Amino acid sequence: MNDLVAALANVVGAQYVMHDSASMAPYLTDWRGRYTGRAMAVVRPGSTQETADIVRICASAHVSMVPQGGNTGLCGGATPLPDGGSVLVSMARMNRIRTVDAANNALVAEAGCTLAAVQQAAEGGDRLFPLSLASEGSCLVGGNISTNAGGVQVLRYGNMRELVLGVEVVLPDGRVWNGLRSLRKDNTGYDLKQLFIGAEGTLGIVTAAALKLFPRPQATATAWVAVPDARAAVDLLSLLRDRCGERATAFELVGRSALDLVLKHIPAMRAPLAGAHDWHVLVELADAFDGEALDGMLERTIAAAIDSGLAVDAAVAASIAQARAFWALRENISEAQKIEGVSIKHDISVPVSAIPDFLQQTQQALMALWPDVRIVAFGHLGDGNLHYNLSKPGAVDNAEFVARTQDVNRIVHDRVAALNGSISAEHGIGQLKREENARYKSEVELDLMRTVKRALDPHGLMNPGKVV
Amino acid sequence: MNDLVAALANVVGAQYVMHDSASMAPYLTDWRGRYTGRAMAVVRPGSTQETADIVRICASAHVSMVPQGGNTGLCGGATPLPDGGSVLVSMARMNRIRTVDAANNALVAEAGCTLAAVQQAAEGGDRLFPLSLASEGSCLVGGNISTNAGGVQVLRYGNMRELVLGVEVVLPDGRVWNGLRSLRKDNTGYDLKQLFIGAEGTLGIVTAAALKLFPRPQATATAWVAVPDARAAVDLLSLLRDRCGERATAFELVGRSALDLVLKHIPAMRAPLAGAHDWHVLVELADAFDGEALDGMLERTIAAAIDSGLAVDAAVAASIAQARAFWALRENISEAQKIEGVSIKHDISVPVSAIPDFLQQTQQALMALWPDVRIVAFGHLGDGNLHYNLSKPGAVDNAEFVARTQDVNRIVHDRVAALNGSISAEHGIGQLKREENARYKSEVELDLMRTVKRALDPHGLMNPGKVV
After folding, report:
1. Cα of A467 vs its chain's centroid, Å
2. What is the reported pTM?
């Protein structure tokens, strides 16, 4: 092991290799604190060449590697296993924006750039990089690519996968694949970049990416809408897209208990509407210009929705401050839940049209066993993606309930599977959902995944124990 | 061989297996007439199960297979090799639209549906399926997926790859992978569908797909704009997207010689503008509604372009008929070229910002050798994708010139490679560009492609001699 550390230090400099437990600690526990692993060393390359040299050295020594970005993942995908047999490769030092090409609507960023830095670089070229997440100040773009990150603008702009034009990857044997093309169209064989997007570092280490940029919207309109039920929310989405087309950039569902928790725990939050409603939707439109016209369009659409019974009340934000206040309600749900206590969390998706059935059937099945279960449902309805978190009032009751996570997962995920949905819509698999995933994937699909893994990483050196 | 035919007939019925040369002939020559192959049999399955049975039978007999859609491909990807060692599997009978889910903005179509049938099914649900190609009445959606088809709306909606939510595939050993999920977000492991999109049938046979739908635009505005040079066209694109945002759905460049050929050979075509201009752009905006506002927006943008020297003259279509007439000029370029005679064709892409350099450098290099070369350049400038076709006036001269295709390709493709572009932007590789592709791809990338091919099709049974 000392030989290995020396060899790594020889590549990156001794100051960028850690092997005492105190310095390594921040890298070895995941953000949620669910997983703590061990590592032979933490190494921090400063360039693609250094990354390649590290991988070659580890591969020669038959030592596995765990790539890590901002360590903000929610499934333990960047935390090494407890066996301590891996070297953790932190990509944070590779944080250069290599190029911004506004006329081509593209930039090239290294894996260690924060998402916020990428957004800023786009803005510097008068363009938008639309990926937006709660952790954007600290998550790294290499991690966003490796987990195919989602967030609040997927409805309009797609997931990270749709935003990547090309990647540079260090393969498990240390070779560098330069796939950094910034092209909209390229049909010269298999689209290899797709293998590495969402692979959670199990097939290689993404060192840089060419990313798509968009015109910057100059105007937004935001509304908080109370809807009678989830089916009305789905129909409201159709109405919105019929009337406003692709201006619809966000359509976030917020259930009553989610709003209540925010109002209870987060200071200075206020309900936008009088009275209590079971379901709310946060709607945002964006356009190249002309905010007044956009507000008018949103108001007319909501009026039509109220006329036809798809909405019961609504507030259109009259100022940027008010729009931010609406968004703060949505963005503080996770924090409010954390303060309230532990819960059983799910990150599911189904076809948008199946959301009402999912909610109704799952609630029924859960309440048959736990009549007082508290369902905190919220999220990206426009993408069919809900965060569906469950707890019970009262600490003792809740502790008992949480101990039955497996049974709860079975109920929730069986409903998801029956509706041809996904048990991990945007957070990935990591360590957290590997077994659960194996339960719901077909044998053919699991075998295809293993085939890809074996083909690209025959010695199983990349991020062992994750995904497959 | 008779055993094999009998076994295939046993699966699909004798009327759907052909093995005499007259019945097989239409399947064995590609649309352009460049390639003619031979086959042991042509078999036409009517279901996924029949396709799987056919593949299992062929695999057991160690007989390779060539999947074929509408036989409209431009690179010979669906034409078997002359060795006659393959069974051709025509997917045309699998032509059911399985489901249309307007609320989820998705439909499921079998591989044998024409693209036009998919567009119509979407319209039936008051939605848009945006892929649009010259051959849409006869190309099949399985072929569109297998070639990652492009076309004229990529600027706004992406290539076929971006429009596919899920696929059903018969693997090379006859197993069926049901990946027909209609989800916007699904991070449960490797995104396996990406392997089969654009693989030209070399990794399996796509039998069905879940496809994305969009709100139907109710209004379009169309203009024919003369620009002083290619750089002005690129800047006009930026201006257009800044001012009109994502309304910009098409931005097609038409060079002077392309327009001249259409006016010469196609009846009833008229130049939209007085005077001769070296470069034109066909611009289209689309929006959910309100055509007048859209026309106004386009007119103001063009006025600003003329003020700043990015455009010299323009006509905004005053009627749908006039818009169609502008489009007819663009769409008849291929036909006009065909009438004029043979030419050396290229389907290239570079970063949009590099288009002016590509045009200038390549013209200079070509004219140094052939001062009277005629360059017909046109296409999807918004995607950085040009069709760049070369010929010489005079049949004898031209025949000599065409005989030097290899030298011409070297000049054109070397420029493309130097600008980090693609030698096949939207048509694929097939047989036509396999060697050329191997010349320009890095050894690492070629090796990755071969690794994927070996992993999924270890016995080399799927569409031999294509892509890799």
Report:
1. 15
2. 0.97
